[in-house]
Amino acid sequence: MVEKKQVGTLYMNDFRTKQSFVDLFTNKLMSHQTMNLYFLNDHGYNIAQKDPDYNAVLNRADYLLNDGIGIKLGAKIWGVTLDENLNGTDLIPLLLHKCVEHQWSVYLLGSSDTIVQTAARNLQTQFPNLKVVGAHNGYFTSDQEVVETINYSNADVLLVGMGMPLQEKFIDRNSSVLEPMARVAVGGFIDFASGTKPRAPKLMRLLNLEWLFRMALEPRRMWKRNVVGHAQFFTKIIWLKRKVSRKQ
């Protein structure tokens, strides 16, 4: 496993580029090694500060990648340099290209029946020859039944889009029985793939302003998360750093 670096209460990977992680992902699956892959933004960080179980789940991830400008700046306070934004919405398509190349099959879990089925069809159109071997909504009461369905599909890669912290907790508590080699918490990727939610224009993504675009689309829901949440995140990051510094 690639060494992780401390950012407050969490330990993250610092891959310099998306391609470097894509290469690792490919090598791991070619060697039939399993991995739990999560992405961390400042919203997820805030949740982890209030939920010790979730904090532990994130630290048990095989790979925890940086998502967004907030995490990048927060990591810098801790002396960790994160060059490229490794958000899942941009990285997952690169992984799906590898799935096509190596004939690895994919299973989608999350959102509503209509959205996840639409996402499955759209991905097969976007990535010709991609094997999507199943799709299930994210509203269920029995992990066991869903895990059995996933395993029966013989999927190599499982994409779980149920939102933080549900998606990571589902993967973590079922890690020993899930058979797909790669289990990836993908956040809103299934919604984006279905066309239900638009992505920010490319220029805004390059400028790390996708959060602003989403807030414009959903101001009531996203205002507290982005404005108040950013402030809470940096306050916590700085407080934790000062606490550690005082002990040294």
UniProtKB/TrEMBL annotation:
InterPro entries: WecG_TagA_CpsF (IPR004629). This is WecB/TagA/CpsF family glycosyltransferase. CDD domains: Glyco_transf_WecG_TagA. Pfam families: Glyco_tran_WecG. PANTHER family: PTHR34136, UDP-N-ACETYL-D-MANNOSAMINURONIC ACID TRANSFERASE. The keyword Signal does not apply. Keywords: Glycosyltransferase, Transferase.
